[in-house]
């Protein structure tokens, strides 16, 4: 039944399409916010690594926790992961649509702005 649903609802194709869109949105945010060191992953399994400096790659552990709390205030649950708890784990359900992905990206943009991380360019 699960495999039938995956096929009938084209959840794998959806993951590729929406995941690609979401990754492009995350990469665009990385161009604007220096705290985003890199965007990892593919499909609907992404990681946003937050750093204090792109030169030293010092993990932004406290800032990541603060960002997760701000995202929660905005209605988005996201948790830190990684050895230094400075990676946002982005694993939405396979059925997520572009509207929901855009909401996530927009709230992340808003949270980064509210927390004063500024723009790089």
* Strand neighbour order, sheet with most strands: 1-2-4-3
Q: Might you state the CATH topology name?
A: Aspartate Aminotransferase, domain 1
Question: Can you summarize the main beta sheet?
Answer: 4 strands, antiparallel
Rg (C-alpha, Å) = 15 Å
- Helix proportion: 40-55%
Number of helices: 4
Strand share of the residues?
Answer: 15-25%
Secondary-structure element order, N to C: HHEEHEEH
CATH architecture: Alpha-Beta Complex
- Per the principal axes of the C-alpha atoms, what is the gross shape? elongated
- Spell out the CATH superfamily: Aspartate Aminotransferase, domain 1
- What structural class do the secondary elements suggest? alpha+beta
Describe this structure in words.
The chain has 121 residues and is α+β, with helices and mostly antiparallel strands. The protein has one domain: Alpha-Beta Complex (Aspartate Aminotransferase, domain 1), CATH 3.90.1150.10. Helices cover 49% and strands 17% of the residues. The chain is built from 4 helices and 4 strands. Strands 1-2-4-3 form a 4-stranded antiparallel beta sheet, with helices on one face. A hairpin with a 2-residue loop joins strand 1 (36-42) and strand 2 (45-50). It is elongated. The termini are far apart.
């Amino acid at each position: 039944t699960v495999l039938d649903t995956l096929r009938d609802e084209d959840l794998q194709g959806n993951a590729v399409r929406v995941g690609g869109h979401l990754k492009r949105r995350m990469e665009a945010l990385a161009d604007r916010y220096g705290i985003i060191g890199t965007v990892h992953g593919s499909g609907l399994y992404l990681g946003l690594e937050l750093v204090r400096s792109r030169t030293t790659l010092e993990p932004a552990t406290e800032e990541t926790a603060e960002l997760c709390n701000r995202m929660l205030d905005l209605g988005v649950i996201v948790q830190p992961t990684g050895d230094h708890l400075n990676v946002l784990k982005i694993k939405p359900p396979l059925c997520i649509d572009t509207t929901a992905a855009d909401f996530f990206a927009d709230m992340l943009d808003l949270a980064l702005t509210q927390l004063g991380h500024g723009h790089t360019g």
